[in-house]
Amino acid sequence: MINTMENIKILLVEPSESIGEVITKSLQRAFNANVVFHRTALEGVERLKKGEAFSLILVRNQSDEAPNTAIDYIAAQFLNIIYDLSLKTPLIVIGEFEHTLKKYALVSERLRIEEINRLVLKALGLKKEDFEHLKLPEFVAFPVKHFYLMSNSPCDIYIKLVKKTGDDFVKRLNFGENFNKTDLKTYEELGLLDFYILRDEYEDFMNGLFLQTLSNLKKTRNLEENIEVVGDSFVLGTDLMRNLGINANCIAMVDQTIFMMKNQIQKADKLGPLLRKLLDDKMSYSYRHSYLIAALSYTLLPKMEWGSGDQQNILLEKICMVSYFHDIYLEDEKLIKISSSEEMKAAGLNPKDWDLLNHHANRAAVLIQGYPRLPQGLDLIIKQHHGVSNGVGFPVVLTAGISPMAIFFMVVEDFANSILSIAGPPENLANSMKEALKPLKEKYQLPSYRKIVTEIENMINPKK
Ligand SMILES: [Fe+2]
Ligand SMILES: [Fe+2]
Questions:
Q1: Nearest ligand, measured from the Cα of 363
Q2: Cβ atoms of residues 221 and 158 within 8 Å
Q3: Judging by DSSP bridges, how do beta strands 139-143 and 194-198 pair with one another?
Q4: How far is ligand 1, taken at its centre, from the CA of residue 90, in Å?
Q5: How many helices (H) and strands (E) does the chain have?
Q6: What per-residue confidence (pLDDT) applies to 232?
Q7: 410 CA distance to ligand 2 centroid (A)?
């Protein structure tokens, strides 16, 4: 039994830098733990051999990617060293793993931070209550842009003044006080990007945030206003899910956002005005590129002979969901724009961004598995949206061996990204589309990809 006043020291071995960081942060936050994080078994095993003591070892069961050595599975190496050194340190393994000799706890491959935290508590013989006080700082930050669709403070709202003597928090909005997006924009123009909520009022705030945003979304507006409002909610929903995972409260809001994207596309008499509005670069790039893919798909999907009538509705809904979630882990516009390994190499990314981009499709697919009432096969389309079957990296050569809807999404996304990069004034949309088509014809020679390029061409130049 460990005294909670003592520091908990955890050895973490996780090949992916970005996943490792997420786990590290969560362990630090939940247990105030001292986390030693390595990407290979070798470094971790060395520490144990040298006699370094840990309260717990947490490893992913995956092969070590060391070039000149035979494949060695990480978890097995730790079981061996624990056995060899007769250590009593508990071991938690993430992923599929079987070993008859030793005891260890297992976390499913569908990585859930909650599950890890629960097992850590169990392995250390501790209770959740011992750590309640560590959960959140006294003041919790929320970006001002997350307040765009609210109009009334669900609790007192603070701003932070940074002083030499320490941070000072000053109340800016009282509980129940009204405000609007113009007020918020003024704050942002003055350089105030974050508001703060008292830890004890976090729940009240989150409830207010979701309720007010949802009811605001449902108000009647014209097309242009609607696209902006849905954009605000898109940013809010994706930010929150990226950082906190999918929680029951946000689902109604996310559902409504996706429903509105789909409805607007279906209801627009002509797509022109909608597409032109999406060229407005005051809205987030991630939203504009996702929406553009969905809007273009509306015209293209019926040509794919995947179904008629009501099935078209289901197909469009799927594409809208894929568009919403596929790049959820990419916050940076620069990363969203990369769609090949050549571009990735040319971008001069730091190791963290490299890892993030490399795994974003796979991670998004894992996240979406926790979403309720998920249309069939949606996680697969997300995983393969860059044309690789396991969702890691970009393809060396294009393959027809992935989901047909992933192929469709990939080509349409490529087209959408090119339109946005050429854009210029909205009146130029028709020309931008023609320009954007050219590289596609070169790039996609395989028949299954080619078919979509041909349909894009027919869409741009309708036969008289
Ligand atoms: Fe994308
Ligand atoms: Fe992507």
A1: 2
A2: no
A3: antiparallel
A4: 41
A5: 18, 9
A6: 97
A7: 9
The whole-number pLDDT of residue 102 equals 54
H/E stretch holding 322:
helix 310-325
For the chain, give the number of residues: 464
Ligand 1 mean position, distance from CA 415 (Å): 11
Distance 279 CA to ligand 2 centre (A): 20
Beginning with the edge strand found earlier in the chain, give each strand of the sheet holding 105-107 in spatial order: 34-38, 9-13, 56-60, 91-94, 105-107
In this prediction, residue 277 carries a pLDDT of: 87
Ligand nearest to the CA of 323: 1
Predicted local confidence at residue 5, as pLDDT = 44
Q: What is the 3-state secondary structure (H, E, C) of 290-303?
A: HHHHHHHHHHHHHH
- Yes or no: say if 221 and 185 are a contact pair by the CB < 8 Å rule: no
Going from the N-terminus, what domains does the chain have, and what CATH number goes with each? 9-133 (3.40.50.2300), 136-219 (no CATH), 242-460 (1.10.3210.10)
The pLDDT of residue 134? 59
- Residues of the chain below pLDDT 50: 1-5, 67-70
Q: How far is the CA of 13 from the centre of ligand 1 (A)?
A: 30
**CA nearest 254: which of 308, 282, 213?**
213
| pLDDT tens per residue across span 367-425 | 998 898 899 999 999 999 999 999 999 999 999 999 999 999 999 999 999 999 886 77
The pLDDT value recorded for residue 99 is 62
The predicted pLDDT at position 77 comes to 87
Tokens standing for 65?
């990617």
Q: Calculate how far, in angstroms, residue 63's C-alpha sits from the geometric centre of ligand 2.
A: 25
Model pLDDT, residue 128: 73
C-alpha distances out from residue 125 to 1, 4, 55, 120, 289, Å = 6, 10, 11, 8, 48
Predicted confidence at residue 214, as pLDDT, reads: 94
Q: How far apart are CA 258 and CA 452, in angstroms?
A: 24
